[in-house]
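This section describes the prediction task in plain terms. A model, or a person checking by hand, is given the sequence of a single protein chain and must write out its three-dimensional structure as a string of tokens. No templates, partner chains or ligands are provided. The sample shown here is typical of the held-out split.
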Amino acid sequence: MTERVPAGVYETLKLEVSRLTALVHDLTLRVNAAGGLNQPRKSSDHLLIKMHGANRFVKFHDILFIKAESNYARVYLVNGDSLLTSKTLKFWLEKCNAPFLLRVHRSYIVNISKMLSYHSGTGLIQMEGGITIPYSGNMRKNLQQTNADHHS
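The expected answer:
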């Protein structure tokens, strides 16, 4: 046998359920935006690179460029170190989500703040430390726009 709930109480409970449903939805969106429940919170200035059983924190601004090596990627740092990782370029570009990291070639992501010049005739980028990196022709427009935005 079911008991009847007075109309006023029913409407109050209905509003409370709606409020709680909206609150759960909002919290779900916030948790997902932060990377999920079981994910460490993303840092805005560094990333964690796991290699050979060790973990190393690398600041985004210390990255000179990232080069694809088959299904791996090697992260080159401004201090001359390089770190071989088991992740792809696509993974690192999404993980970093840094506006100054730009994929300029199928095999390269560069830190445009470490870029000295690029030459449209040769398709080469001159980086700090005397390093030269190729860029693909279809990336030329992106490179020009990103460089203009970065230096304006």
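For orientation: The two ends are 73 Å apart (CA to CA).
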